[in-house]
Fold this protein.
Amino acid sequence: MHAFEARLAQFVLDNRLFVISISLVLVGLLSYGCVKLMPDTSYKAYFSEDNPELIAFEKIEDTYTKNDNVIFVLAPKNQDVFTGETLSIVEELTIDSWQMPFSTRVDSITNFQFTEAMEDDLIVRDMAKNSHSLTTEEIQKIKQRVLAEPLLINQLVSESGHVTGVNVTLTIPPAELTAATPEIAAFARQLQAKIEKNHPQMKVYLSGMIMMDDAFNQSAINDFTKLLPVSFAVMMLLLAFLVGRFFGTLATFIIIVFSIFSALGVGGYLGYPLTGSSPSTPIIILTVAIANCVHVLTTYAHSLKNGAHQKDAMHDSLKINLQPIFLASITTAIGFLTMNFSEVPPFNHLGTLVAVGVLISFLLSISFLPALVTLLPKSNIKLSDNHGEFLTRFANFVIANKKACLWLMVGGITLAIINIPKNELNDVFVHYFDENIDFRTDTDFMVENMTGAYTINFSLEASESGGISDPVFLADVENFSLWLENQPETIHVARFTEIMKRLNKNMHADDPAYYVLPDNRELAAQYLLLYEMSLPYGLDLNNQINVDKSSTNVKSTLQTISSKEGIALDMRAKKWVEENTSKVTHVDSASTFLMFSNIGQRNIRTMLFGTVIALILISGILILALKSLKLGALSLIPNLIPAAVGFGIWGLLVGQVGLSLSLVTGMSFGIVIDYTVHFMSKYLRAKREQGMIPEDAVRYAFRTVGQALLVTTMILVIGFGILGTSTFYFNAGMGQMTAMIILVACVAVFLLLPPLLLKIEDKNAPTNNNATVSDLT
Amino acid sequence: MRQLITMLLCLTLLNAGAQTAEEKGLAIVQEADARDTGWVDSKANMQMILTNKQGQKSERSIRIVSQEVIGDGDKSLSIFNSPKDIKGTAFLSYTHSLKPDDQWLYLPALKRVKRIASANKSGPFVGSEFAYEDLTSQEVEKYTYKWLRDEEIDGKNHFVVEAYPAYENSGYTRQVVWIDSQMYQAVKIDFYDRKNTLLKTLASSDWSQYLSKYWRPGKMLMTNHQTEKSTELLWKDYEFQVGLTNRDFDKNTLKRSR
């Protein structure tokens, strides 16, 4: 049975230089792919090309204008936007914003095109110009006009007029998006700094989709430059402390670096982009792969301590560890590969690359590691056996109190599990970043003071060219907008019918009685023509009306609501249009918010499916490895419980489950299974090879693998815990949840598995012999 | 003293010999303007085809009548024939070099003439990729110029001149104009937006000569590089010196123009 392991160990140890050289060449070849890695920091990276909501979104963007934007929120200390000075700042910022790279439109309260009638003249002009020289009366007049303008209130100015915004729309060719984002963000920050420096009484906040893309970028850089080195340092210190050998630690370090670069290189060859989720890849590989080396090195150190020669000690270690670390690696890899069931490309890439990294680290730790370590001088070993004594006492305690342990665990688990429903599926994409990222705090300010960060665009189509001027269609659009405005989730609804009403009034000598929609199709069309003729560059209606004048875009701005509420509102709105309009032939809706909401909902479903697949595959492997259907099935309990308990605790403490958390079940399953594999295999070995009674076998298992399990738990919890401090929620949430699940898994293996084993074995004592027989064949 | 005068004289002469790029640019445009003077008035039908990024098309058809005004911008009257919702709408404008144009619109549905009091010339003309400022008569004083180079395209020589708007509220920082050295007409114009990046390109083709003197394009294609939308103008039925009078360009008679 151990013939293969022995032959492999012999080959590696007889051809050490060859093994090292070939490893270096292969690692070099794979790592070369890293040069092909290209960053893609757009939020769109999280959607595949065939994502239906992305397609709908891009269709609307192509029909009207792009939605990429930067928004400046200006908050003067005196809480009043309507002063000559503040209005001048807004004017200046409006002009400066035209210089922002890729800007195609700038909207502010000062360049808003105000229309009024004067006899037979239609006057179209900027709401405020040369504000610094305006009189108090003139400024009061502007204030009245701005605060009475439905298109501005809650959009570019607060109801009380204490903050105002300048919105810059950008049109960026997709190929240039990644390079453009930091350039635009830097330009925006420059303008922000300039205003704050020249006008100390003014505070400027920055939000918008481009600032969000930039936050993805920033947090990725932050994770790569801070979290990754910290993880490395902590892991190496931990390893040096636990394994206690300088050269062993060095060799492990080399293997981890090789595994990470090879995995990332594979990503490069496969054309995977670097996204906000990418920094997770090396941190997870580092954390997970370290366990393999720990197993090989601890056994090696034990043998050395018992006086064995370096080569013989390594030969033993490989013989003992090959199968368990192979199993552990393969199950971990399967767990991560389930991320491929997700339809979010960065998660597919993360799963695949971690799986590749884990498998490469496995190959290296059974070839390169032994070859290198036995070539390096051996240093003094500091391993103590004190833990063994403690673990034996612990085992005795668990055996003596098995009923209490079982009930305690069942109670605790039940308590945790009943809290699972408290989790609400929600992707608040503004909250993807923590408060250390300016985008988050600035956007929070904007949402609290001026307007929402969530929008849904509804594109309403008429049946024919020019159909938007049909009075019935106009009434449909207006009624829909009013309905939408009255929904509790809505902050603002922008629609072109507002302009129509205003023009109708202007055309009738500003008579307020005419602030209604024109009742004649030709009239509406001619108003539109007149109005369009008098607009300046960049302030046209192309963002609301298509070229054929057969469809219009109604843009709603929403409160910060959950994904579920967002999807529900969208459905409700479409249903309303279907039932209550007569000339709207089709309605499309799309937005970034809907994209994230829908993908979040679907991701849960696909990941549940993925988890089930992982469950079946990994259980199958476990049953084969343990050669016992019953024990394999039993081991599912301590494997399934950690994720359930983890989500229960999460429900109690956090309550919101976003996109990345749905990935955790599958991947954590692949990691926690290792605990059971190690514990069960030692338990079975004691029973089958040494004929121990179950109680003694449990003691044996605790003594032999207890320490390794505690060490790996510490490493994994700390590693994922560090990932949990990422400024990017996808990484942080995943790290925190996985760390928690691993901790629960460790507790479950120590407190739940032994009582369960003893309970089962009590009832079916005769199966002992069967197991022994099967092991002999 | 005498030496100084001689020196200054020499310098002035030298300068006259070696024209600056600005002077050369201006000279080319003045020549173009001179060659296009004397047509008195004209009539033509224009078909406008708008295409968005999705490839959706939309058409408008407009009859355009113009009158040459020596010493100021020309007068023009545009009457919409289609789409039918705006049929009969008439747009009268007196262009001026530097001050805002006078503009009136007759709305048949309202049966009234409205003066548009707006300094804006840079917005899109009826939703197209043409700004109003691209379509109005190109007076020499509207821009300052700089000759960049001569360039040969398809065996024909072109003057490449850069033009900088001299009027307020333009949507552009500059235009680069390719002027055919035979026709003295702009065959291609690159428009640069306020942040000085390439915004649009206008290519004019299918040229015909009228009255053995005046060149007009049969087709003008404006492509917006930023939004990937485009607009094509097809010109037909050009007529010159048809005997129009000031009355044809009077806001009070705008209602009767069809």
Notes: The domain at 3-42+214-418+596-776 of chain A is CATH 1.20.1640.10 (Multidrug efflux transporter AcrB transmembrane fold). Confidence is low (pLDDT under 50) at residues 765-777 of chain A. The first strand of chain A starts at residue 38 and ends at 39.
